[in-house]
Amino acid sequence: MDKNNNYSVLKKFSQTQGIDLFGVADISKIKNEFRLSPKTLQNLDKAVCLGVMLSASALSEIEEAPTKLYFHHYRTVNTFLDQTALKLCNMIQKKGYAALAIPASQIVDWEKQTAHLSHKKLGVMAGLGWIGRNNLLVTKQLGSQLRLATILTDMPLKTDKPVKEDCGSCLLCVKICPAGAIKDDPAEFDLIKCFEKLKEFQKQRLVDQYICGVCVNVCKGRDGSQLKANLSPS
Ligand code: SF4
Ligand code: SF4
After folding, report:
1. What does the pLDDT average to over 188-203?
2. pTM over 0.85
3. What is the structure's pLDDT at 233?
4. pLDDT tens, residue by residue, 90-139
5. Cβ < 6 A, ligand 1 pocket
């Protein structure tokens, strides 16, 4: 099978499993940023990026702080992504290639808020969207109302290109962030202010994990059509 065909097979399978956004990034030049051993990464040169939408209704309960309903939904979507990534990994392995699923939500350094790799950075490289003023991946279809998982593989796959888009004149999240962490310039996002607010929410026992959702709730996507995913066959 060639790389175009492999891409189509994985995309189609992802679609049938309920994945909403799919893209592939070439990671050969950024592998040294990952918190994984060189031995594990040796031949893995592609990242398959999977995105699943969050429920706009579950998010809409959020005003100035996260809700227990959102927390449950957040974990449910992460589990769904992890299980779907596992199925895709098994499929890739049965075709004779290596596949490593990186969990949707597994922080390895809470102070720096880093995981084994950055799903959102790979999402940008795979053409799913851009890094918004809220420091999250923003997509045209879903805004920031999605969760991501990644599969690293040595399977020959065609790769996607980053999109040439940004937040434009939108300032919705800048105005609503309870920490004042979001600025006009995305490069000035204040990670420390954001994290301090997440710690506050957790201390108040609103949720059992460092999550918020306030800026996600207002970031609904450029075309406002939550159901238009990118999974048209190719
Ligand atoms: S997660 Fe909450 S505190 Fe952090 S930037 Fe978004 S709205 Fe602000
Ligand atoms: S709410 Fe608007 S400014 Fe904020 S990340 Fe989303 S698109 Fe960008």
Report:
1. 92
2. yes
3. 42
4. 999 999 999 999 999 877 777 777 788 899 999 999 999 999 999 999 99
5. 134, 177-179, 181-182, 194, 197, 212, 214-215
Residue ranges of the domains in the chain? 3-218
Nearest C-alpha to atom 8 of ligand 1 is from which residue?
Answer: 177
Nearest CA to ligand 2 atom 1: 219
- Confidence grade of residue 152 (pLDDT, cut at 50, 70, 90): very high
Q: Which of 131, 133, 184 to mutate to test the pocket of ligand 2 (most atoms within 8 A of CB)?
A: 133
Atom 6, ligand 1: residue with shortest CA distance: 215
Centre of ligand 1 to C-alpha 4, Å, is 39
Which among 89, 81, 95 has a CA at the least distance from the CA of 17?
A: 81
Question: Six-digit token pair at 165?
Answer: 């888009």
The set of residues, in sequence order, having a beta carbon less than 8 Å from that of 209 and lying 6+ positions away, is 71, 74, 75, 202
Distance in angstroms (rounded) separating the CA atoms of residues 199 and 190: 15
